[in-house]
Amino acid sequence: MPTAPPRPQFTEEVANLTVVIGREGTMRCSVKNLGNHQIAWIRADTQTLLSISNTMISRNYRIKVYHSDNSTWFLHLENVSLTDRGDYMCQINTVPPISKQGYLEVVVPPEILDEETSTDVEVKEDAPAQLRCGAKGYPAPEITFMKEGSGQVRYATKGLPGAVASSNTVDSDGLKKTTAVLSFDTVTRGDMGHYLCIASNSVPPTKSKRMVLNVRYREPAVFVSHQMIGAYLGDSITINCTVKAYPRPVVFWQDSTGKIIISNDRFRVKEMLVGYSPPEILTMLTISDIKAEDFTTYRCNASIDNDKTREKSLAVQLSEISRPSTESSVIFKDIFSQPSHGLPNYGQGPPASSGNRSCSCTKLLYLLIGWWLLPGAVRGAAA
User: Fold this and answer.
1) Are the C-beta atoms of 143 and 162 separated by less than 8 Å?
2) Quick check: 249 and 220 in contact, CB under 8 A?
3) Given this model, what pLDDT does residue 48 score?
4) Exposed / middle / buried, residue 4 (Cβ in 10 Å: 0-12, 13-18, 19+)
5) Please, are residues 41 and 50 in contact by the beta-carbon 8 Å criterion?
6) Cis peptide leading into 247, omega within 30 of 0?
7) Rounded to whole angstroms, how far apart are CA atoms 181 and 179?
8) Cβ(34)–Cβ(92) under 8 Å?
9) CA pair distance 243, 111, nearest whole angstrom
10) Residue of higher predicted confidence among 304 and 337
11) Which pTM does this prediction carry?
12) Confidence of residue 277 (pLDDT cuts 50, 70, 90)
């Protein structure tokens, strides 16, 4: 009797496949002893016949089949979409038919949802605030918040006040939509700044969006390096003052009478913005050719929205310094440099002659004589 041909069989499982949306993917079916039997690819979850042998049944132009040596059959999908997600079956038309199937997973990188994400948030100091961020993708995006610059968000820890993050995920047209909220019970000046909402789900690329938290100061913060400054009569001096506040404050200088100082031939006021979040202003008051009446108190003032209740100032006292007299230095120079005064050479003692050394007692004697003569010499020069 003739020997029956070996029965067709699969040599391996149809592996599951994960493809990023928009890219292409290929599923493989490996068999042996196929003989005159045929391979069919079927969309298992919808029972849709896609192909028989080399013939395409499906009219989806993105799907193609091909094989290698009649033992390896491929189902190739181009420009994969969410609708392609599902089970795919490789079937041999034996009686009864045998099959293997694998799952095609379609993943989607995260995308920030602008309509559900904060942009600029402005609140008063010590008031509550929320930063919101929405993202979709598959798998579900995870959302984190980061503060630019320091990178640290002031989270509430161990009973200390701060921010609390929460999130919620729902299904949305084959994707997952996550909404995250960063909630502050009370915001401080230190919370002000630029924040990043970062969405990731292990499918590159990670996406982020920038948002701003502006905190309206109760009153400006004013700083001066010194509150008492000395200067010489006739010289020039610059007094520096730094102001921080949001919104940007009005900054001005006043004299001791309360009069606002305006730049003129001897007084010059200069202002520059040195920081942005919050606005930081450096104001400089320069006084040239200082006169006696200039030695007084100057105030660096800052006001928010021209509101007197939101005004802050610091005083700087400018005091006169007496110039050092050169007369006494000339007298001492003459005393120690002119031999006519008959004073000893302090520190060295009298010159030692060859073969004759001065003892320490002689040095001490010269020193004592010098201290006795010095006040009289100074008095004589002064007279």
Assistant:
1) no
2) yes
3) 96
4) exposed
5) yes
6) yes
7) 7
8) yes
9) 40
10) 304
11) 0.72
12) confident
Q: Distance between CA 132 and CA 126 in Å, rounded?
A: 19
CB 41 within 8 A of CB 75: yes
DSSP string of 235-271, one letter each residue: --EEEEEEEE-SSPPEEEEE-TTSPBP---SSEEEEE
**Greater confidence, 323 or 118?**
118
Asked if 251 contacts 302 with a C-beta cutoff of 8 angstroms, the reply is yes
What CA–CA distance (Å, rounded) separates 332 from 350?
20
Tokens 């404050």 belong to residue: 249
The residue type at 264: N
Sort strands 297-303 and 311-320 into parallel, antiparallel or unpaired: antiparallel
Residue type, 168: N
Q: Which residues contact 186 (CB under 8 A, 6 or more apart)?
A: 126, 127, 128, 161
Length of the chain: 383
Residue 172 has pLDDT above 70, yes or no: yes
For the residues 197-217, what does the mean pLDDT come to?
96
Q: What does the radius of gyration of the chain's CA atoms come to, in whole angstroms? A: 44
